[in-house]
UniProtKB/TrEMBL annotation:
Keywords: Transferase. This is Citrate synthase. The keyword Transferase applies. The active site is at H284, H330, D385. Belongs to the citrate synthase family. GO terms for biological process: carbohydrate metabolic process; citrate metabolic process; tricarboxylic acid cycle.
Length: 447
């Protein structure tokens, strides 16, 4: 067992006892109320699930196991003294809640390297897809092809006791985290380059090797990938999915049930692929692709030196055309996303004279006012996607269709960590209650 697995084995009984105690002591405490508006409005604000790796505060932004992004940048192990933190260290933090030593982070690095080999049939599955298949579709198809390797699925079929579910789940989570960079690099090389899959370099860390397999060997780009993976690693629970069932009893009452993919004991590959299909939506992860495209339109139509007045007009035209301004707004956050801020700081440190960086700054000065004037946007401030594309472009990763795959690789760490804890804590199948509109009206009229 690796150090990380050993540490988890020590922590799990403590956490199981803690959860039991929380339930015993506070089980009946009301966390909040659900209104009809919330049921119609995408369940925003309903407190209804356990998610340990990160917490999103509306004003402060994301904290990973209680640590803000600047704190993570300061405290997590690095390979360069003034560099960016290693995602391997973040993975230790997400899994255990503890800031690792450099030795522990490097042990995770080694563990991931030992698990990184992608079986040959995955490339054949990718080759079978028609050219022009979106990289995110290739990514989920590739993850599904990796599912043949699931240790959890085999252990379940073999009748493993439920108290041990977390062990094969850990195997799959770590294998999957280890393999997605090679899968993503394969997709990149096949879709945009010469199709030649570049072998990994065992002397590099997780992020450096990922960049290397895509064909990027600039050490500054490797730094960017470290930061990128850390800030994109969490949060969201594996895709809420309709396993919806409707039952009608004597024509009057209805019930329905949804479930979260992982909670149905679908193995980590199936669950992660489902989550990635959610990430592929333009209001979520695909926004980074859309954002760079939008900036390119600005450049094509006005020029990279667009004045603030011209930008204002461009933003208004975007809204008039019934489109969103990508990279701005958030369902929960109500301030500038700290993930935007740290990318901006990276840009100012390493590429301050890039004209696209200046354009992003000008857009930042113009968009919030225009969005606020609509009177309906709850958060006019930039999110993580407003900056990432310009940074990637600077280092030569110019194919914006691929950007959401980078997001997906990063997110493996957060979502698969929670899946391990879901199984360790014995959390049940998730079934938020859904209602028909008729049932809502009947309920309200009876009140
Ligand atoms: N441009 C134009 N209109 C916007 C907007 C934006 N950037 N952000 C919000 N609005 C609109 C909404 O479309 C909604 O309009 P409607 O009432 O006509 O449907 C209204 O303002 C209220 O929405 P709001 O409550 O502020 O935001 P939501 O929680 O509904 O949506 C997202 C949040 C992120 C989906 C929304 O702000 C958006 O579409 N932003 C652009 C896409 C984007 O950048 N997504 C990435 C988000 C994030 F970082 C991630 O998860 O990856």
């Amino acid at each position: 067992a690796s150090d990380l697995q050993t540490r988890l084995r020590e922590l799990i009984p403590e956490e199981q006892a803690r959860l039991k105690e929380i339930r015993k002591k506070y089980g009946n405490v009301v966390l909040g109320e659900t209104t009809v508006d919330m049921a119609i409005g995408g369940m925003r604000g309903i407190k209804g699930m356990i998610w340990e790796p990160s917490l999103l505060d509306a004003n402060e932004g994301i904290r990973f196991r209680g640590f803000s992004i600047p704190e993570c940048q300061k405290l997590l192990p690095k390979i360069k003294p003034d560099g960016e933190p290693l995602p391997e260290g973040l993975l230790w933090l997400l899994m255990t809640g503890e800031v690792p030593t450099i030795e522990q982070a490097l042990a995770v690095s080694e563990e991931l390297k030992s698990r990184a080999k992608v079986p040959g049939h995955v490339e054949r599955v990718l080759n079978a897809l028609p050219s022009g298949t979106h990289p995110m579709t290739q990514f989920t198809a590739g993850i599904m092809a990796l599912q043949t390797e699931s240790v959890f699925a085999k252990a379940y079929a073999g009748g493993i006791h439920k108290s041990r579910y977390w062990e094969p789940c850990y195997e799959d989570a770590m294998d999957c985290i280890a393999r997605v960079p090679a899968l993503a690099a394969m997709i990149y090389r096949k879709t945009f380059k010469d199709g030649k899959v570049l072998p990994g370099d065992n002397n590099l860390d997780y992020s450096g090797n990922f960049a290397h397999m895509m064909g990027f060997d600039d050490p500054q780009f490797h730094e960017l990938m470290r930061l990128y993976i850390v800030i994109h690693s969490a949060k969201y629970k594996l895709a809420p999915v309709a396993g919806a069932m409707n039952d009608k009893e004597d024509g009057r009452s209805y019930w329905s049930e949804g479930e979260m993919v992982g909670s149905a004991l679908s193995d980590p590959y199936l669950s992660f692929a489902a989550g990635m299909n959610g990430l592929a939506g333009p209001l979520h992860g695909l926004a980074n692709q859309e954002c760079l495209r939008w900036l390119r339109h600005v450049v094509d139509e006005i020029g990279v030196g667009a004045s603030k007045d011209e930008l204002q007009q461009f933003v208004q035209d975007t809204l008039k055309a019934g489109k969103v301004v990508p990279g701005f707004g958030h369902a929960v956050l109500r301030k500038t996303d700290p993930r935007y801020t740290c990318q901006r700081e990276f840009a100012l440190k390493h590429l301050s004279d890039n004209p696209m960086v200046k354009l992003v700054s000008n857009v930042y000065e113009v968009v919030p006012d225009v969005l606020l004037k609509t009177g309906k946007v709850n958060n006019p401030w930039p999110n993580v996607d407003a900056h990432s594309g310009v940074l990637l472009q600077h280092y030569g990763l110019t194919e914006e269709n691929f950007y959401t795959v980078l997001f997906g690789v990063s997110r493996a760490m957060g979502v698969l960590t929670q899946l391990v804890w879901d199984r360790a804590l014995g959390l049940p199948i998730e079934r938020p209650k859904s209602l028909t509109t008729k049932a809502i009206v009947e309920f309200c009229e009876k009140k």
